[in-house]
Amino acid sequence: MSGNPQYTLAELAERFGLEAHGDAGTIVDGVGTLASATSTQLTFLSNSKYASQLADSQAGIVIVGAADVASRKGAALVAADPYVAYAKIAALFEHVAAAPRGIHASAVVAASARISPTASIGPCCVVEDGAVIEDGAVLGPHCTIGPGCVVGAHSRLVARVTLVIRVTLGQRVLVHPGAVIGSDGFGLAFDRDHWVKLPQLGGVRIGDDCEIGANTTIDRGALDDTVLEEDVRLDNQIQIAHNVHIGAHTAMAGCSAVAGSAKIGRYCLIGGNAGILGHLEVADRVTITAKSLVTSSIREPGEYSSGTPLQENRQWRRNAARMKHLDEYARRLAALEKDRGND
Amino acid sequence: MSGNPQYTLAELAERFGLEAHGDAGTIVDGVGTLASATSTQLTFLSNSKYASQLADSQAGIVIVGAADVASRKGAALVAADPYVAYAKIAALFEHVAAAPRGIHASAVVAASARISPTASIGPCCVVEDGAVIEDGAVLGPHCTIGPGCVVGAHSRLVARVTLVIRVTLGQRVLVHPGAVIGSDGFGLAFDRDHWVKLPQLGGVRIGDDCEIGANTTIDRGALDDTVLEEDVRLDNQIQIAHNVHIGAHTAMAGCSAVAGSAKIGRYCLIGGNAGILGHLEVADRVTITAKSLVTSSIREPGEYSSGTPLQENRQWRRNAARMKHLDEYARRLAALEKDRGND
Amino acid sequence: MSGNPQYTLAELAERFGLEAHGDAGTIVDGVGTLASATSTQLTFLSNSKYASQLADSQAGIVIVGAADVASRKGAALVAADPYVAYAKIAALFEHVAAAPRGIHASAVVAASARISPTASIGPCCVVEDGAVIEDGAVLGPHCTIGPGCVVGAHSRLVARVTLVIRVTLGQRVLVHPGAVIGSDGFGLAFDRDHWVKLPQLGGVRIGDDCEIGANTTIDRGALDDTVLEEDVRLDNQIQIAHNVHIGAHTAMAGCSAVAGSAKIGRYCLIGGNAGILGHLEVADRVTITAKSLVTSSIREPGEYSSGTPLQENRQWRRNAARMKHLDEYARRLAALEKDRGND
């Protein structure tokens, strides 16, 4: 056995308010996929595409929707949204070693910083003047918390996170390694023959329950702050420029980017490597598909895309060459139509 | 009051060589936007789009162009380029805590490194054999300066910057957290069934007054050096491959990338997530719009683009499917025209 | 002279199994380009595009293919693949300072970590509980090796590399600064009005002889592992999502990205900033050109592309506007053809 915690079907049903089917004493001590889960593991079926695997699954417990429970022979939990229920139950089986309270001997902490006694400051961290680390917050190795920055209660900076200056993280914010928050916005004025830098005098405010991916960068504002409202979820290598405002519950996939002063709504889904130009607005509940570029404001919820489909290179070359003449083709088409109409 | 430094209209006019209008004793102690600046703050109007806000602005001082000064009731400074003037004046209100001279106790500095007595080496920095840190240079926390690398006078590495090897930074270079300069170029030779790595024997030379964004990467050359001339401005998460040469005063927006041995001219503007393929040349004063891909040399100044416009996904799908047949459509169009001509 | 090691033509021919032409005693102590190499440097000619430079090259030794040797007056080595032979010989001239065995005084190493006596743990490294560092492995400054992670024999983490948790590196793996391996996959379930995080319970397995570029991120799997087979070569700023599987000998250029659970074949070449969506398969020996987006599985080897060609912006605008109406144009074209057929 794995040494993991163990739960019975009855316990899980009770704890998560789900309906149980089958042997109430069925025990699980871990999770797996529908195809690979063993008789002591729990899994789920949320996508009807995989329904055919349900009958064959060896899993001890399967979380299913009401429509699928009849197809499950063994123990099952019925959930309105099996994926959500799975996410919550699976968290029981995640071991995160408790971070030791207090400040590691190798950390460098300014005398004026305010560190909660229940916070954990890891090896080689640097906490600068006036920074505040609230209750239960955890800084993994190699974090730098710049002057006056605030890490809210129960937030966790996994490792090597840098908060530069005027950055405030809310509660339960999770930041992955390599993220840089509060770096200078890219503000330049062109003075005849060279660049003059604009001082970046604003900060960054990150709401409660946000997640910031590995090597993601969030610049601080030029005058006002860059803002992420609560529960914004950023994947890895995302770039958020100065004075961007992202509404609550918006999720952005890896390598997407938002240029300066853009305002993204709530509950948006931004696909991988999508880009949003500066100084525009995106309404609530907008989905942008992967690699699309938003060049003007989007006022209506919905799904938006740009780009061209993938083709075998030889065919693509022929078609791409034609794209350079589309305007001409459209004119020629119209001329033919007019000509035809004159017959 | 804010405890900031205070300046009168007369002082600013004198110091920056600008023409003053209104009460010479008007005092400002900070900056703000045209809409939000208070009676003790300075702001600017450079874009005629916002001219309507000028009459209502509560700002203590507004920097305007000559054409707009008549519309301003309160104190004003007249500048040929209000944005440039604002950039310079705003810098007065930026507090950058003076970095303490000397080497922090937690830093690890090789005996053979040469550190100016006026330089500042921050907590947990590592300075390796033969590295040189010149007068007034500042290394924030967690920087690594590899063997023989040089940080020029008054350059500032904000935090967690890594110079790997054979990297020379000029004077007043500003590097943001997470940047990696001098990592191996991506050079591989394919030997029948596996890759053989090419040693990367060159270095990186960064000119005076350059700025390098957060998590930007600049590889060192294979034989010769990767070069940024003076006053090159790189935003966050930019990738510069080995042996790239970027001309003076060129600015690149976030997530753009240049492949190996490309040569970019002076005074170019490269948009966000734009890409430039390897072994090609881009002339001076070329602008590339966001997300465009440069696949061959550009010999003339001007603005260049690729990509398709964003559409509602359902419409986009219909159009994108047609792009796969453009060549055929063009042929059919020509056939119709020919046919018509034969009537 | 450079103080570099010196080799005669005869020594190199013998050591690398190449045919020598010219004075067997010709000595080289370095490498250069065909155009710049001096009489004590070695270079190569692999691309017939540069054949005209061969006669003028001042290089002490040139590696050439059999077809070009007659055009070379001085000393030459004949190789089946001159570029591969050059890669191997050039490695003789790379100085990598030997890393000192043992643990730097500033490193923080858990008592339960297992460090080979022949490994080198650099300044400010953090090695956590149960981590294993095998023979001859080198950790440069500022690396963090998370709980239970394994760094295989003779692997080298140049500097500031973070292995988060459940990460295993094979032998001779080379990881560049800023890389993050084993961070949380981006797994979220939407629970009516907010996100619920899915615990990421898998790990990352990196095969022998892989190379991971600067600031590249590789997330750990949700249940199973994220896998790179042997000799996979990743450039800088690449994003590999959870549960991705990359076949042996595949090389990916800078800023490319692979979304969750995609399976990439062996010997693939992925161009710069190309993207591959999740849950799809790419066959062996597929080439994807720069900035292309793969949105469905690719079953056949070959070269694939998407995107549009670069144009002068004014022309591009006209054509791009037409792309929004392609479906309509295609219908109108068909209508004209039909109409014509009815004549």
From TrEMBL, chains A, B, C:
Gene Ontology terms describing biological process: lipid A biosynthetic process
Pfam families per record: Hexapep, LpxD
The encoding gene: lpxD
Record text on subunit structure and interactions: Homotrimer.
UniProt-listed InterPro entries: Hexapep, LpxD, Trimer_LpxA-like_sf, UDP_GlcNAc_AcTrfase_non-rep
CDD domains, alphabetized: LbH_LpxD
The entry's keywords: Acyltransferase, Lipid A biosynthesis, Lipid biosynthesis, Lipid metabolism, Repeat, Transferase
Organism: Luteibacter rhizovicinus
Any one of the GO CC terms: membrane
The UDP-3-O-[3-hydroxymyristoyl] glucosamine N-acyltransferase non-repeat region domain, residue ranges: 28-92
Metabolic or biological pathway: Bacterial outer membrane biogenesis; LPS lipid A biosynthesis
EC identifiers of the protein: 2.3.1.191
NCBIfam families reported for this sequence: lipid_A_lpxD, PRK00892.1
UniProt name for this protein: UDP-3-O-acylglucosamine N-acyltransferase
Molecular function via GO: N-acyltransferase activity; UDP-3-O-[(3R)-3-hydroxyacyl]-glucosamine N-acyltransferase activity
Top-level enzyme category: transferase
